[in-house]
């Protein structure tokens, strides 16, 4: 005689219960007391959708649904006076029939509902939030109010990428994404009139369905954005800043805005080397690398229209904001020459180094960021060269010019005057600027350019006869070598310093042996001043 409601299952969480005026979607089985079924929403494959408390249901069901939670299951016994009474429903419900309903509530909303946002994770740092006209990349799981999954970007392994607030999304999602931070996670519950309405989407989403989106925001930018630079470390001394046309060597970690690493020069143990301001790198990096100092660390945030655009590249998805944490190792310009800084010069500095002089010096060699490459001090011996003879890189030949014994200087050598693009494997990186701290310890004056041997006094008028010790009219290499050695030992002559004696003598002899037969005759023999200007190095 009375309405009877039995709760068969009540979910642990019940944030909202049915009230008169709410719209509900539910499944049911309708049967008579003897168990005979007269109706079922399951058989039709769709929920029963109706407003509660507005006379659209039989009175007993209107009352029985009040207070139900989504996913709650109730057994409802409705007496005839609260069902179809004495008339029944022709061919379906007999007169004065007691009705049993097994009801499962699927969905619940009210026409006055708004989008509900529940944030369950928010990063500590939130420098920017989603605004109207921003472009976002996010992952989501889409479910109905009962928890049934209807869609997931995770399953597709691809973010959902869209503009916000300009009608590209359902209105509820347009609202629900506003104010989010990158990395934030929130649940957005959307009533059907702000989603797909009465018709649904024609696929997975039925009409009048409330939607629940579990969203994590991965990326955010605006088409009007430029790059953002955050200085992390700027050296106290910054004598020079990079300009367009400079060549930079730098390390970097490249991540997406959510922190996902997509590339790192550190993992390759090699700097990234490039010209800046000339289009060799993406536009945002071209701009972000201008104005840096050697040793500087900065973060460069690049929107996709200044990065890899809508298509992305490799591990970089389309429309992704890029974050580069860079460390500038060195830079130079192809027009740079050797830079010399004199740190100490003795008061008595009259004899200056020149081409051909034999020098002994100590040095510490490092990169522009201070990384030590080599040091003669650690070897316990000097480095010895003939200046201008090609025994060192061109920049060092230049840096050692006009130096006096005891002088200390710092020589900075750009790579095109050092070891070039290739460097020295395992020792000097390619395209590296080199820094040498030098102290000149000894200087032996060389010979005039073009000479390998000079006389310290007058030259004998019978020079050939003196060399031709056996007076056979021919001078062999052995005779020639013994004679030169005797002149050097007696102080009458001087060889170019820093070269191997035998090599010099062989070279001098070969220059005199004009027919190449291993012998020098009087006719072949000439002094330097007897040679034409285009002649070889002679006596």
Describe, in plain words, how this protein is organized in 3D.
The strands form 6 sheets. Strands 1, 2, 3, 4, 5 and 6 form a 6-stranded antiparallel beta sheet that branches. Strands 7, 8, 9, 10, 11 and 12 form a 6-stranded antiparallel beta sheet that branches. Strands 13, 14, 15, 16, 17 and 18 form a 6-stranded antiparallel beta sheet that branches. The protein has 539 residues and is of the alpha+beta class. 30% of the residues are buried. The chain has 5 domains: 4-109, Chitinase A, domain 3; 116-221, Chitinase A, domain 3; 228-332, Chitinase A, domain 3 (Roll), CATH 3.10.50.40; 339-444, Chitinase A, domain 3, CATH 3.10.50; 453-521, EF-hand (Recoverin, domain 1). Helix content is 13%, strand content 32%. The chain starts with a strand and ends in an 18-residue tail after the last strand. The protein is rod-shaped. The chain contains 11 helices and 28 strands. One of its GO terms (cellular component) is endoplasmic reticulum.
């Amino acid at each position: 005689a009375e309405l009877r409601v039995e709760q068969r299952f009540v979910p642990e969480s019940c944030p909202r219960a049915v009230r008169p005026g709410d719209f509900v979607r539910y499944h049911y089985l309708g049967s008579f007391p003897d168990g005979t079924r007269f109706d079922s929403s399951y058989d039709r494959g769709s929920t029963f959708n109706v407003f509660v408390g507005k006379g659209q249901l039989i009175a007993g069901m209107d009352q029985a649904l009040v207070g139900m939670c989504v996913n709650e299951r109730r057994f409802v016994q409705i007496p005839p006076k609260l069902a179809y009474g004495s008339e029944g429903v022709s061919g379906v419900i007999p007169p004065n029939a007691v009705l049993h309903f097994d009801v499962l509530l699927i969905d619940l909303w009210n026409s006055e509902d708004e989008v509900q946002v529940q944030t369950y994770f928010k990063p500590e740092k939130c420098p920017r939030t989603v605004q109207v006209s921003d472009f976002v990349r996010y992952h989501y799981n889409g479910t109905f109010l009962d928890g049934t999954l209807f869609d997931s970007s995770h399953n597709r392994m691809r973010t959902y990428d869209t503009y916000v607030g300009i009608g590209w999304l359902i209105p509820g999602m347009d609202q629900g994404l506003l104010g989010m931070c990158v990395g934030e996670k929130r649940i957005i519950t959307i009533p059907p009139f702000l989603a797909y309405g009465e018709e649904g989407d024609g696929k997975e989403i039925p009409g009048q369905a409330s939607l629940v989106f579990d969203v994590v925001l991965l990326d955010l930018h605006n088409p009007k954005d430029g790059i953002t630079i955050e200085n992390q470390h700027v050296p106290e001394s910054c004598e020079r800043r990079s300009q367009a046309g400079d060549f930079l060597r730098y390390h970097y970690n490249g991540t997406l805005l959510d922190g996902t690493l997509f590339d790192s020069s550190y993992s390759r143990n090699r700097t990234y080397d490039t010209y800046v301001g000339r289009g060799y790198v993406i536009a945002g990096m071209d701009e972000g690398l201008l104005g840096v100092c050697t040793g500087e660390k900065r973060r460069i945030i690049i929107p996709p229209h200044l990065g890899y655009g809508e298509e992305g590249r490799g591990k970089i998805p389309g429309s992704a904001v890029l974050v580069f944490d860079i460390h500038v190792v060195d830079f130079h310009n192809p027009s740079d020459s050797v830079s010399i800084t004199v740190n100490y010069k003795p008061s008595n500095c009259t004899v200056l180094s020149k081409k051909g002089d034999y020098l002994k010096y100590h040095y510490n060699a490092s990169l522009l960021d201070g990384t030590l490459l080599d040091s003669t001090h650690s070897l316990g011996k000097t480095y010895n060269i003939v200046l201008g003879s090609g025994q060192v890189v061109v920049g060092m030949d230049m840096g050692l010019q006009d130096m006096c014994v005891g002088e200390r200087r710092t020589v900075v050598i750009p790579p095109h005057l050092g070891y070039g693009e290739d460097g020295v494997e395992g020792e000097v990186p390619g395209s590296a600027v080199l820094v040498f701290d030098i102290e000149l310890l000894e200087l032996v004056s060389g010979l005039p350019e073009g000479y390998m041997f000079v006389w310290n006094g007058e030259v004998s008028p019978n020079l050939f006869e003196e060399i031709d010790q056996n007076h056979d009219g021919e001078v062999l290499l052995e005779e020639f070598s013994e004679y030169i050695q005797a002149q050097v030992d007696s102080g009458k002559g001087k060889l170019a310093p820093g070269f191997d004696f035998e090599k010099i003598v062989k070279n001098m002899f070969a220059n005199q042996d004009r027919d190449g037969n291993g012998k020098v005759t009087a006719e072949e023999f000439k002094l330097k001043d007897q040679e034409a200007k285009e002649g070889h190095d002679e006596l």
